[in-house]
Amino acid sequence: MRKASGVMATAMAVVLLASAATLSNIQAAEPEVFVVTGVKAGDFLNMRSGPGVSNAIVGRIPANGQGVVATGEEKKVGSTNWAKVYWVSVGGWVSKAYLLPEGQARKTPPAAAAPESTVPPTPEPPDSTIVVPPPKTPPATKNQPELVLSCVGTEPFWRIDITNSRMSVNMNDGPRYNVPVTFRQTSENNTSIAVIAGEDAANKTQAYMQKVESCSDSMSNLSYPYAITALLNNRQVISGCCKVQ
After folding, report:
1. How far is C-alpha 66 from the geometric centre of its chain's CA atoms?
2. Cβ neighbours of 113 (radius 10 Å)
3. CA distance 110 to 184
4. Given CA atoms 214, 218, 222, 227 in this order, what sign does their dihedral have?
5. Where is this region: Disordered (predicted)?
6. Which of 208, 226, 206, 207 is nearest to 216 (CA)?
7. Burial letters for 191-224: b for 16+ Cβ neighbours within 10 Å, e otherwise?
8. pLDDT, tens only, 41-62
């Protein structure tokens, strides 16, 4: 496996409580990657269980957060557009006013947002303290499959699939097991790096992930946006590439 290199940022799920506000129709689109914008240094962008500030906070993204993956599902509450996103394997809804496409962020130097001449939407206010609760398993959403961070490697061949609640390990010539996700956290000084871990009575897996410009599986022409190094049962270390599917 060739070593991944490049620009950084990470990603993923928690979902839906009812909102009292009137919502517009769901808009479906391909997943996109964003960075956080318009949030003061030291503050955080709330992730909520549903669109609207009346819903519970399920996570927070720092002001310099990167690798925020939007599912394409959006809803409008009042004058605010809300987007369903995943960040470091945790999902929730955020005000889209605080998201900037990753490609545009590379081309545009950071600048303070100018006030609008018309009445602006009421975006979700960021918080000044961080709370990272362990995610709860979200209820199944009709016609909305759960996003999976799919990771693969060669020599030996292996696959790890990570959802909001579980890690599935499949080694062609080794162990195969599923464990519940028990820990997830981004690096305090580099939000493009994160750790996701899972364990039960029999097995334990720790995955160290990084958003990169390109990761190659060395077997195809595919380019992956994430690199991973995993420790299996404190005995075996494997490295590979990941993508959201």
Report:
1. 9
2. 10
3. 28
4. negative
5. 107-144
6. 226
7. bbbbebbbbeeebbbbbbbbbbeebbbeeeeeeb
8. 888 899 999 999 999 998 889 8
